[in-house]
Write a structure and sequence with these properties.
8 helices, about 270 residues, single chain, two-stranded antiparallel sheet, about 35% helix, binds zinc ion, alpha/beta, 9-stranded mixed sheet, TIM Barrel, globular
C-alpha cells in the first residue's frame, strides 16, 4: 500500500468558502481527506520575500485591521466544520515572512500558543500537524513544534537547521535515503516541491504526480488554493488538473489518501 497526503496551504480569514468548495468537492465526494494548513491570525499586509503582496490575502481587507482571526470568517468556519473531509493543520501564527525561521524561543512559543488558542476558539479540533510559513524552520522552531505536534510537514531537512540532538537520527535517515523520519513519536515529513502549482507546465503535472507517488511509500502533495484563483477568478484549466488528480488518486487500488491525523495516530506504517 502507498499513501498520499494532500496539503493545501494558506487558508485564512480572507479565504472564501466557495473557493475551497470549487476545488475540493471532487475529493470530498470520493472520501479523500484534504489537509488545510490554516493561518490562525493572518496579517493582511503579508508580503512575499520579493516585496509583492501575498495573494492568499483575498479581496480587499480592511487596512484598519492588520490581522484577522480565522474565526471572524463565520461562513468559512461553518463550511469546514460541516465537511468532515477537511482536516486543519496549524500554519504558523500570522504568516510573517520568517516567523518560524527565528531563533527567539520566547517569540516562537508565543506564536505557537496564540495560534493554537485562536484555532481552538474558532471551534477547530486540536491540529495534529504543523506547517511553517514558506516551509522555513530554525532549529529552535523544529524542536518546539516537534514537542507539540505529532507531525511536522516541511520541504526538506538540512543538518545546519536541525537541533544538535537530532543529528544522529538525521544521519540514519540519510543513510536509509528516506524522505520521512521521526524524532520520538513525531513524524517529520518532507515533500517533493509543489507539484500542483500554476508555475509548472500543466501538460505534465498529473504525469509527474503519478511518477512521484509510485516511487515512494508516502508522498505529501502540496498546493495553494489561491493559485487557482488569479485576480479572484477561477482558472478552470488548472482546476481541471486538480480534479483529474482526485480521479487518479481515488482510482488506484493500492493507494490510500490519508490525513495528517492518521499518521499522528500511527494508523499508517509509512516510512
Ligand atoms: Zn503559507
Amino acid at each position: 500500500m502507498r499513501y498520499v497526503i494532500l496539503r493545501d496551504d494558506d487558508t485564512n480569514a480572507t479565504t472564501p468558502a466557495g473557493c475551497l468548495e470549487q476545488l475540493y468537492r471532487p475529493f470530498l465526494a470520493r472520501h479523500l481527506p484534504v489537509n488545510l494548513a490554516t493561518i490562525p491570525h493572518v496579517r493582511t499586509d503579508a508580503r512575499r520575500a520579493d516585496g509583492r503582496p501575498e495573494e492568499f490575502v483575498f479581496g480587499r481587507p480592511d487596512p484598519a485591521k492588520p490581522r484577522v482571526w480565522i474565526g471572524a470568517n463565520r461562513e468559512l468556519v461553518a463550511y469546514l466544520q460541516e465537511n468532515s473531509g477537511y482536516e486543519i493543520a496549524q500554519h504558523g501564527y500570522d504568516h510573517s515572512l520568517d516567523e518560524f525561521g527565528s531563533r527567539d524561543t520566547r517569540d516562537l512559543k508565543r506564536r505557537l500558543d496564540k495560534g493554537a488558542q485562536l484555532l481552538a476558539a474558532a471551534g477547530f479540533a486540536r491540529p495534529s500537524a504543523f506547517v511553517a510559513p514558506y516551509d522555513r524552520f530554525s532549529a529552535a522552531a523544529l524542536r518546539l513544534t516537534a514537542a507539540r505536534f505529532g507531525v511536522v510537514s516541511t520541504g526538506w531537512f538540512e543538518l545546519r537547521r536541525l537541533p544538535l540532538g537530532w543529528w544522529p537520527a538525521y544521519a540514519g535517515k540519510k543513510l536509509a535515503a528516506t524522505a520521512h523520519w521521526r524524532i520520538g513519536a513525531t513524524r517529520l515529513l518532507s515533500h517533493p516541491g509543489c507539484l500542483l502549482s500554476r508555475f509548472r507546465p500543466r501538460e505534465s503535472m498529473l504525469e509527474n504526480i503519478r511518477r512521484t507517488v509510485a516511487a515512494q511509500p508516502l508522498t505529501v502533495l502540496v498546493t495553494h488554493w489561491w493559485e487557482y484563483f488569479p485576480d479572484g477568478r477561477p482558472d478552470e484549466e488548472f482546476i481541471a488538473v486538480l480534479h483529474r488528480t482526485a480521479e487518479f488518486l481515488a482510482g488506484e487500488p493500492d493507494l490510500r489518501v490519508i490525513g495528517f491525523s492518521d499518521l499522528a495516530r500511527h494508523a499508517v506504517p509509512a516510512r
